[in-house]
Amino acid sequence: MAIYKALLKYGHSGFTLEILEYCEPDQLIAKEQGYIDLLKPEYNLNPIAGSSLGYKHSAETLEKLRNRDYSNEETRLRLSQAATGRILSEEAKAKISAARLGIKLSVETRAKLSAATTAIHGVAVEVTNIATGAVEQYSTLTEAGVALGVSRTAVKKVLQTGRVFRNNFVIKMKD
Q1: C-alpha neighbours within 13 Å on the C-beta side of residue 6
Q2: How high is the pLDDT of residue 120?
Q3: If you average pLDDT over residues 148-163, what whole number do you get?
Q4: Per-residue model confidence as pLDDT tens digits over 66-119
Q5: Three-class DSSP labels, the chain
Q6: What is the dihedral of CA 128, 134, 139, 144, to 10 degrees?
Q7: How much is the pTM?
Q8: Residues near 79 by Cβ (< 8 Å), separated by ≥ 6?
Q9: Cα–Cα distance between 95 and 90 in angstroms, integer?
């Protein structure tokens, strides 16, 4: 980052941080844009307030983005960990669905998704509360996730690993 390099080069004493104006939150973007236009700050990467519009990635960054490899295990693990416990609202699900409408998947990818979907959809599970001995049955992983306050994916991972969930629940496939 340019500001980071400048701080290293000139030191912290070569910079100041000041509040230019106090304003209401609903006026913030307009005020920020006004100051960007007026002062044309050298280290501001985004010329449009509240947006990344106008930001230009370096050729090196663009090349890295083009050549990303989501197939390596480390990347897949990080993506999986980032999604663990996430529960999407119906609005978020609709947005994701709408965004993916035009995407064409290869035959191989469709086959993988189909196999994965078959493996997880409609899996009936039993959730046993270790403390009370109470056993709840759910017809899908999603249903169990909603009851436990986590995502279907989190339930699936606990089921696959055989771990005790939240030190209190044992999740197993229903016989």
Answers
A1: 10
A2: 47
A3: 87
A4: 887 777 788 888 888 888 878 888 888 888 877 777 666 667 766 666 555 555
A5: CHHHHHHHHHCHHHCCCCCCCCCCHHHHHHHHHHHHHHHCCCCCCCCCCCCCCCCCCCHHHHHHHHCCCCCCHHHHHHHHHHHCCCCCCHHHHHHHHHHHCCCCCCHHHHHHHHHHHHHHCCCCEEEEECCCCCEEEECCHHHHHHHHCCCHHHHHHHHHHCCCECCCEEEEECC
A6: -60
A7: 0.34
A8: 70
A9: 9
State the Cα torsion 82-84-85-86 to the nearest 10°.
50
Place of tokens 């017809």: 139
**Domain assignments of the chain as residue spans, ordered by start:** 2-61, 125-173
User: Is residue 161 pLDDT above 60, yes or no?
Assistant: yes
Tens of pLDDT, residue by residue over 10-50, are 998 888 888 989 999 889 989 999 998 999 888 877 788 88
How far apart (Å, rounded) are the C-alpha atoms in residues 43 and 84?
Answer: 36
Token pair listed for 143: 């249903």
105 vs 107: CA distance, rounded Å:
7
At 45, list the tokens.
């990467």
Q: How far apart are CA 33 and CA 26, in angstroms?
A: 13
